């Protein structure tokens, strides 16, 4: 029969936990070290005293298999305690394997992703289901082969085939073959293949001993003259599989490629459990044919290799039928020499070992591999993996075998991953890294893990790690993110970890409502935003777009405003007049020796260029503001972002505005006053603009302690004297003109021609105008008179800022955070989170990355492809999720020895929910603790929660949802109703038991009402 080659399947994600190895990297090191893992029986399993021979044989045991982060998966302690620990191991391992594939596990929700789990032992079920009197609903769903796969599909919301496979020792390799078959058939686009094994009773160890199959020291010695039987082991492994073409298209890391495989039975041999040499040859030939390979092209063989004399001899004979006479022998090994025989997980362990070897082009030694005449494998065309062997360059293929005790054989043919050259990334760009957790206390652990990964990464990869983190670590209820330069990342991550650990984190309350604030003139300085342009490629690109629209600029370096904003009322030195300066915006700002730019003809268009570039960058990053506000000339950029002006229109408007203002004759001045505008009007009275031939106007109302006067010199001198007599602080500003006063009227006349040519384009965003002090809604139009009044009238910042009360965050766009300081001083919107795109001359260029990180942390979802340049959009390995290890779920081994069902043992960390002893319940919800009826009712409800779920009432917050936070489902909700029914006079409404919408406080209120008690003050009903 001719068999067509199979479509190649890529192994794109791996996670595992084996004796002595908590993850794939530790497993690889264990393999390189040639270590063995057999130990004495842990005390929490069983005592061999009084049991048949074999019960005390050492084996490879996992450390802490009882640890499980039940809160991460939304499971109550009672449900977690009833689950087969194999299910718990698979859940955590599957999550980390998907992360390793470069995907967020939640991103697979609703997809036709399949789950194929190989397992041959369900000893937890054997023990717990033998006690009918102790049966619970959770014991039913917590046990059974199918439930091991279904548990993964349920918690990750995977809609593809979900099945457990039991073909004895070949179970997990058969499961992998079935997963590949589903992918090749187009039934699914992603598949999880897994294997798991835990040794919870001595039964199989006794069987091996009675059948003469057990190694007395518990160590397998594959293909060795000293082989004396099987050593048992336990562990879990999960691989993520995709069609190779899909994996490459998505840029996923490929560990190895499964070119083909086959599964077949021994049929009738010389005994039910005896292997069949010719059937083994047949299944390997079939796999080779489907892979389009020849036996001579296989360089590495991961054999079944249990260490039994007869079994190994038959396998070697079968391999010899295929490989004898080769010019270069295939290198043969077996992972069972390290871990022992993992039974249902044996195949996945061998597969993971082989994938790592092919990816790293190194074959680890087989532990204890024998040499010498008695161990000669050359007659079979084979050689032993005695030491770590560097595998040759070029095409490289391997075979993996796994044979079942009942006769089901599996063989896969693998090849090394295609070589790809990944871009190195930037060494300068600021970046964002994110992580998260289902629980608040999990954030700090995962930030620390991320920090370790960043510290170990080669230079230049921080951006690629950041981009990977946004695809892998996003989607959690609790978020953490950091934005920083590459050199600043370690310190920033350390600060974030300490903040997560020391401050009680809360989930985002919702999507942020962000206001963009555009700074006015006076915030400029030579070389402003140079670091931002160097660190943020989108900003540099948009700055050049603005420079092209503005064209060459010509102006004087000064005199103009001080280093802070003349309109904000901060005094400082002005720049003296000098020869004119000419250049494009990007040349003037980013050149090697940037000139002073305080002259109005330069300052205004350059500020616009900076603000436009910042606004477009934030838009590209996915920030959609709720409203915009611009101070003085900043309103032009604000209106542009709001859609009222195009870049070309705004560039012409700001150029003409700045040039017209600079062309005016001098003679005017400005006065910053530390008082509210009403006080100033009261003090000055008729002096405000009263004398003929003089001008004195309010240039800006910036808040309760900041206003600015502008006008002719004589009028300002009299005003200064009046203010001094009233004890009101006033400071003369060194400026070139009396901005925002009647003295600007000639410039307004020049600007009119440009303003009247602007199309009447409606706002697409609300604009809090500093011209009118009003909130102009989306759809309204700013006419020509608006821009003329904007030049001569008062800057009504305080009135405009009052409209920020609907925002949760503000982002200031400009070269330094001037408006942010005004908001803080005024106490406007005290709950507002204030951010800035540039912090001034000392900026390190990371501010936009920091803004992105903060908004993401607070609930926004940036456009990550906009955040990262194409060279940064490369998947790099990140550490898997760090689960909580403070909760343990096990059983009492002493009771197991007595022949009855074990009592569950649940140990929960002090900072998590857990089981407590009966008695009085102390909880903040009980009020003042006076022992009254209110306390008793609350205690009754909390005790019922403890009984049904196992949660410690002392750690259950009132706003905890029954479903999401406490792990309740509909069955548990009905049990809760049964517990509470005797305490109420009327039935509980359905709403009281809805897990996804009822909080603990809601439940208490429902019970109070049903019990006839008065509702708690302020409670919802």
UniProtKB/TrEMBL annotation:
<feature type="domain" description="Carrier">
    <location>
        <begin position="935"/>
        <end position="1011"/>
    </location>
</feature>
<dbReference type="InterPro" id="IPR016039">
    <property type="entry name" value="Thiolase-like"/>
</dbReference>
<dbReference type="GO" id="GO:0004315">
    <property type="term" value="F:3-oxoacyl-[acyl-carrier-protein] synthase activity"/>
</dbReference>
<dbReference type="Pfam" id="PF00550">
    <property type="entry name" value="PP-binding"/>
</dbReference>
<dbReference type="Pfam" id="PF00698">
    <property type="entry name" value="Acyl_transf_1"/>
</dbReference>
<keyword id="KW-0596">Phosphopantetheine</keyword>
<dbReference type="InterPro" id="IPR014030">
    <property type="entry name" value="Ketoacyl_synth_N"/>
</dbReference>
<dbReference type="GO" id="GO:0005737">
    <property type="term" value="C:cytoplasm"/>
</dbReference>
<dbReference type="InterPro" id="IPR006162">
    <property type="entry name" value="Ppantetheine_attach_site"/>
</dbReference>
<keyword id="KW-0808">Transferase</keyword>
<dbReference type="Pfam" id="PF00109">
    <property type="entry name" value="ketoacyl-synt"/>
</dbReference>
<dbReference type="InterPro" id="IPR036736">
    <property type="entry name" value="ACP-like_sf"/>
</dbReference>
<feature type="region of interest" description="Disordered">
    <location>
        <begin position="554"/>
        <end position="576"/>
    </location>
</feature>
<dbReference type="InterPro" id="IPR001227">
    <property type="entry name" value="Ac_transferase_dom_sf"/>
</dbReference>
<feature type="domain" description="Ketosynthase family 3 (KS3)">
    <location>
        <begin position="6"/>
        <end position="416"/>
    </location>
</feature>
<dbReference type="InterPro" id="IPR032821">
    <property type="entry name" value="PKS_assoc"/>
</dbReference>
<dbReference type="GO" id="GO:0004312">
    <property type="term" value="F:fatty acid synthase activity"/>
</dbReference>
<dbReference type="Pfam" id="PF16197">
    <property type="entry name" value="KAsynt_C_assoc"/>
</dbReference>
<dbReference type="GO" id="GO:0006633">
    <property type="term" value="P:fatty acid biosynthetic process"/>
</dbReference>
<keyword id="KW-0012">Acyltransferase</keyword>
<dbReference type="InterPro" id="IPR009081">
    <property type="entry name" value="PP-bd_ACP"/>
</dbReference>
<keyword id="KW-0597">Phosphoprotein</keyword>
<protein>
    <submittedName>
        <fullName>Phenolphthiocerol synthesis polyketide synthase type I Pks15/1</fullName>
        <ecNumber>2.3.1.41</ecNumber>
    </submittedName>
</protein>
<dbReference type="InterPro" id="IPR016035">
    <property type="entry name" value="Acyl_Trfase/lysoPLipase"/>
</dbReference>
<dbReference type="InterPro" id="IPR050091">
    <property type="entry name" value="PKS_NRPS_Biosynth_Enz"/>
</dbReference>
<dbReference type="InterPro" id="IPR014043">
    <property type="entry name" value="Acyl_transferase_dom"/>
</dbReference>
<dbReference type="GO" id="GO:0005886">
    <property type="term" value="C:plasma membrane"/>
</dbReference>
<dbReference type="InterPro" id="IPR014031">
    <property type="entry name" value="Ketoacyl_synth_C"/>
</dbReference>
<dbReference type="Pfam" id="PF02801">
    <property type="entry name" value="Ketoacyl-synt_C"/>
</dbReference>
<dbReference type="InterPro" id="IPR016036">
    <property type="entry name" value="Malonyl_transacylase_ACP-bd"/>
</dbReference>
<dbReference type="InterPro" id="IPR020841">
    <property type="entry name" value="PKS_Beta-ketoAc_synthase_dom"/>
</dbReference>
<dbReference type="GO" id="GO:0071770">
    <property type="term" value="P:DIM/DIP cell wall layer assembly"/>
</dbReference>
